[in-house]
Design brief:
About 50% of the residues lie in helices and about 5% in strands. The chain is globular and about 40 Å long. FE2/S2 (inorganic) cluster binds next to loops.
Length: about 90
């Protein structure tokens, strides 16, 4: 699931992304919606991950999880993003 990573490294080469690649990646993140009910894009969720320990923390911070499905659709995605973020942060 390469689109969900928050790294600034290129997936295949692990080299830092060029500014143009970073801009393209950011644009993708802002058009891809994680919380369909509330229209919360991936970029906003990724921005909200720092300081969060649980999906509920992320939901409270960015406004996801409070739509019609009550987080049934976006919760699992946010859980994966949070797990990847924590692994990336700790180098795991
Ligand atoms: S998709 Fe996020 S609350 Fe429904």
């Amino acid at each position: 699931m390469p689109d969900d990573k928050d790294s600034i490294l290129n997936d295949e080469t692990e080299r830092p992304l060029t500014p143009e690649e970073q801009a393209r990646e950011r644009a993708k993140q802002m058009t891809r919606v994680v919380c369909i009910c509330k229209g919360i894009p991936l970029g906003k969720v990724l921005d909200g991950l720092p300081g969060c320990e649980t999906v509920a923390d992320v939901n409270q911070k960015v406004g996801s999880g409070s739509g019609g499905c009550k987080g049934e659709r976006c919760g699992p995605r946010i859980k994966i993003l949070l797990k990847k973020y924590k692994e990336h942060k700790t180098g795991g």
